[in-house]
Design goal:
Elements (H helix, E strand, L loop, with lengths): L1 H19 L4 E3 L12 H5 L4 E2 L3 E5 L6 E4 L1 H6 L7 E3 L3 E5 L4 E6 L11 E7 L9 H12 L7 H16 L1 H23 L1
Parallel strand pairs: 1-3, 2-8
Antiparallel strand pairs: 3-6, 4-5, 4-7, 7-8
Helix pairs in contact: 1-6, 4-5
This protein binds copper (I) ion.
The site of copper (I) ion has 5 residues, from loops.
Length: 190
């Protein structure tokens, strides 16, 4: 029956929508892990790190994972770390945007290649634009000539904000509704 096919396709659509919004775990160095003789610049290239994602460092305990400043990253300065881990498996949640720098804290290992720099971007949720504050600044000079113009512009900008912020919730809902409609059409016609 065609109905079964519709259900399978719909499940795939819904599941793919859900996975798009979830956080990712990145295993640093993939199967090589956190070790000497791995090019972590190459590993990080092309990857998009977002707030909510995590880095997973797998290493033997002859190494450490040190969170450092950009200058300590550049100069491979050890002993000055912001945070240091040595358990062998370290998962670091990326909670802030910007560049994050990690090196191995063992003498000579950073210059031996154990240094990782990543850029973390926001998760895509919209931030309020500065335009609303610029509109009232202009309004005193325009009130005499065109009092009707400013109110629609302000109403338009404020009504956009809740719609944009809930778009990540709406898109899976649209997929579910689409699937239900397709499923019911199949039932009626099939
Ligand atoms: Cu090391």
């Amino acid at each position: 029956m065609a109905t079964y096919g519709v259900v399978v396709v719909c499940l795939m659509v819904v599941l793919s929508n859900v996975s798009f919004g979830s956080a990712k775990d990145y295993t640093v160095g993939d199967t090589a892990g956190w070790a000497l003789s791995v090019d972590y610049t190459k590993w990080a290239k092309g990857k998009t790190f977002k707030v909510g994602d995590s880095l997973v460092f797998n290493y033997d305990t002859s190494h450490t994972v040190d969170l450092v400043s950009s200058s300590d990253y550049t100069t491979c300065t050890i002993g000055n770390s912001i945070a240091s881990y040595n358990s062998g498996t370290t998962t670091i949640a990326l909670n802030t945007t910007g560049s994050h720098y990690y090196i191995c804290g063992i003498m000579g290992h950073c210059s031996g290649g154990m240094k990782l720099r990543i850029k973390v971007t926001s998760d895509g949720s919209p931030s309020p634009a500065p335009t609303p504050s610029s509109i009232p600044a202009d309004s005193p000079s325009t009130t005499l000539l065109g009092a009707a113009l400013p109110p629609p512009a302000v109403a338009g900008t404020t009504s956009n904000v809740p719609v944009e912020s809930s778009s990540s919730v709406i898109s899976p809902l649209i997929a579910v509704v689409f699937c239900l409609v397709a499923f019911m059409l199949e039932l009626i016609h099939g």
